[in-house]
Amino acid sequence: MSEALTFHFDVDGADFTSAGQASVQVKKNLRLLGISPDIIRRVSIAMYEGEINMVIHAGGGEADVTVTEEEIVISLRDHGPGIKDIDQAMQEGFSTASDRIRTLGFGAGMGLPNMKRYTDHMEIRSELGKGTDITMRVNLK
Amino acid sequence: MTVRELVEKAPFKAAVLPDPDREITGVYIGDLLSWVMGRASGGDAWITIMSNVNIVAVASLADTACVIEAEGVTPDEEILATASAKGVNILLAEGGAYETAIALSKLL
Ligand SMILES: Nc1ncnc2c1ncn2[C@@H]1O[C@H](COP(=O)(O)OP(=O)(O)OP(=O)(O)O)[C@@H](O)[C@H]1O
Ligand SMILES: [Mg+2]
User: Under an 8 Å CB criterion, which residues of B touch A?
Assistant: First the structure.
């Protein structure tokens, strides 16, 4: 693998019952590339949490996953409402999810903390009324 | 113990078993999906009462050995078909999470 490989996904915000398709596809692609199971698990969970957040909180968005010899980079972009207080959103248990979302098992306020835990580096940029950009990196070396 | 052996020895029914030779290495109980993704380990038997389609993605991505639906909960046919296609084992237990965990504890 000498060149970077990039996978692009449009994440549909309309139907969160099928949400997670991009993450499931990434898992498959990484398996074909021979990435180790532990790394695949970390990348797919982090991406799924981000994907679900875009669907639930931002009406959908876009995702790019880049694989190089050194690292896997997951970039998520949405044009949703943005995050008012990122430090607060990063705390375990903080959630603004609706009751309807909670009946599905989401809304524990653990998604962003999981994304941080399972990746080596995570950066959030968000502007109210404009949207949210999240970049996560997992080292391969 | 593999998931197939568990079905043979425990009072659980197999709803779908696309990956019967998967080894069970632990147990996690929980219904909040982000807790499961944050705390379950790969290879765990995941005991839950959640039965919507998102459990299939969570089980697949968190790489659990199987999902065990407690309290007699049975997912819809459509969800079972998705699980089957994604290689996610789903078992059904009549008892609650506690009884289910005890049955597992005796066997693991
Ligand atoms: N892409 C996003 N756009 C707008 N707000 C977001 C976005 N992602 C997260 N948030 C805000 O941050 C909060 C915390 O997110 P987090 O993923 O940790 O928890 P959750 O999605 O509410 O619940 P869980 O992930 O446990 O199911 C959310 O409730 C929401 O208010
Ligand atoms: Mg979340």
Answer: 31-35, 37-38, 42, 50, 52-55, 57-58, 60-63, 86
